[in-house]
Structures are given as structure tokens and as C-alpha cells.
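Posting this for the archive.
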Amino acid sequence: MHRYILHNEDVVESTERCLSPGQVGLLNGWGVFSTLRVIDGVIFSFEKHWERMRRDAVRFRVPFPSDPRELFEPLRRLVQANQAWDATLRVAIVRNRGGLWEGPGIDRDFDIIAFTTDPKPWPEAVRLGVVHRARYAAWPFAGTKILSWCHNLTWLEEAECRGLDEVILLNEHGLVSECTSANVFISKGHQVWTPPLSSGCLPGITREILLNEIHIPSFEVAEKDLSLQDLEQADEVFITSTTRGLLPVASIEGLNIRREGRALEPLRQAYEQYVRDYVARAKAEGKSCRPVSMPAT
């Protein structure tokens, strides 16, 4: 974590004690969050992250800023304070009030908490495990990104203790849902598939971009129920997330998978071009976090 964090409208030292156990969302996981990338001083795809957080906040009755600028401008000041021009940004909206354990002196319905850190160095290809019955697709809150995240962190830590990078989470039907913090894709010939939202997976931002905004001749990207057998029969398996982009899967515990596909590389190149175009457009619109007089490095 970098030196400064954002607490509501204030950028403060990360060592400053500015939260209270009486904020009901802190100890109950009652809030929403998102993880974004800062690329050359631009908060990438802020609008999509904002909209997903807003939708989840409505579902969980979490008060939320009424205007995107109420969140974007403080985040911009945080990035500037940390000079985090190439960084990972985490932002959370925490519900403060409600129930028996609301503390005294709470004068806000919600708190904004955000911080930045250096990007994680990911491997060139990832090794995955498998966790059965880890997602419940029929749950009314399936696919939401909320502060109650410890189950995902536990599965990830257990995987790392076994020398793996991530795990594939299956739902109650034995179908592939997602990883703890990434979506899953396969390719076979000119077809590229990812599990539908009905599998219980999170609607990842990179997933959304690949499905709806990137179009490559000769390749079709669509949703489809996937089993472990489908992963074995695929030409290639890859995962996606905001912090990783597109990463090939080298192995899946207990499965024999292939790395013979021809879809990943053109999709990755198209996605990287999409990112470059977004960054250039944001700069032209004055949405960069860099001061105007500061050149890019």
C-alpha cells in the first residue's frame, strides 16, 4: 500500500486512524468495492466500475454517492498524492448505519475508503486448482462484489500454499463459474466461450469488454455453460481480470488441458489496443490524474 489513502473527501496518511468499529459495514462486510487499474495516470474504465458498484449497492441497500464525480474527483486526488501513475486502485463504499451495533457519533450514511499499491507481477501463465460447490448460482446475490470476501481469500491462500496461482470455482451444478478474482474463458477453433452470469460468476469488467466491445473477424466471443470436460477439450483456457488483463492457463489440477488455441493472442492484442485508446481519449477529455504540466514517463 502507498503512503496516502482516501477517507471520504480527505487524503490522509495510511497510518492515520480514521475508522470506527461502530460503522456497521466494517465488521459485517456490508459494503461494495472494486479494484481498478491506473494506467499512465488514467483510472481505466472508471465508468464501468462505477456502474457495477452502484448496481451492487442498490441490491445490498448500501448508500452510495449520487454522482460519479463525487467518487472520481477524490480518487483523482488520491492518485496524485501517491503519484500512482501506474498502479492498482482499490475503492470501497462502507455502510455506516443500521442495526444494534451502530456506534455513537456516526454522522455519515456511508464512508468512502480507497488506496493504491504497485501492480502485482503476474506469471506469464497461471496454474489453477479446482474447488467444488464454491458458488451457489441460485443465490439472489450471486455475482455481486461485496466486502464479505474472506471465502475467496481463503481459497486463494490455500491454492498458493499448494504452489498454484488461482482456483476455478464450480457451482452447485458442477459447472464452471469463475476464479476467486477472475473470469474464465476457453477457445475451440474460432469460438470463444465464457460462463454466463447464471453460473454465479461476477460480471467482470474485462469480461464485459471482450463480450461486447471487442470484435475480431473470424472469432466469436459468447456465453456458454462450461464443464470441466469442456476445459479439457478446449484448445486453450485463459482467465481475465482488470489487474491481469488476459492470461493463459498453463495447468489445471487434475485435468489435462491443451495450449493449442489461436484466439488468445489476437484477443489480447485487441484488448491492449482498447486500453490504449481509452487512455488516450481520457487524456484528451481532461480525465487524467496527472497535472497538466507533468509529462508522462
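The radius of gyration is 20 Å. The first strand starts at residue 4 and ends at 7.
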